[in-house]
Amino acid sequence: MTTADNDRVSRSFTINGDAMTLDGMKKQAEARGFTIMCDEGPPMGDNTAPSPMTYFAVSILF
What we know:
Helices cover 23% and strands 24% of the residues.
């Protein structure tokens, strides 16, 4: 093993969650005690919550 190999750090984590489909394009998920809703904008959805792509884009900002 080289010095570079000794400097490597490995981490893993698991997140458990449940998701369900509601009316139209609405979805609801629960993870770690939080409830998350998503929906699509018109004409596919009712725009009642952020879209899945919005959550993805914002997660990159974090």
